[in-house]
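Contributing new records

If you add data, match the layout below exactly. Sequence lines come first and carry their own label; structure lines follow with theirs. Keep one chain per record. Anything else will be rejected by the validation script.
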Amino acid sequence: MSTGSSEALELSGEREVQAVALLLLLSEGVRGRYSASSLLGLREGVVRGLYGKLKELGYVEARRGGARITELGRRWLAERLRLRGILGAKLLEEVEAWGSKYAGAAASLEREVRRVVAARDAAVRGGAAMALIVKRSAGGFYLPLVEEYDLEAGAPGVCRALEGLPEGRSYLVVLGESLYACVRGLLSAAAAAEGG
């Protein structure tokens, strides 16, 4: 199978975002429908339909206890992310930041985010509670415009999450109530950041 245009049409819009979220989750290990539904914050019927479609396309394979992403699925996911300028991304099932716990999604970007407010607003419109645009220096990760702020002290989980991503020009961290809302916000923010 290829990741050609006819398949891309079958997974477009909201369905594509759902597929990206599910494949990011499956990149971390085998998951059943119920577990994936609960973690992503999507109805079980939506996840069941996604599993069926992704299996049909060869992006996941069913296993005892759940499904896992295939190599073809990894390539499709990487291409979808790359189209938005994302070098690498991962889900954060629970991250502590500023004394609260959130679900989240983090990504390294190939470009510097110049439209910070537009990127943040796009993430929030996508369903996230907040979005952080983060940079990296020899001293660690920091928030542009407030470089003196100790990000490690305020949001240590965010810094740990960013450590495992490929090195990028900028990083996006999107936090919210559900992983799906965070992925939707992350993809929206990356698209808005690409525009500037």
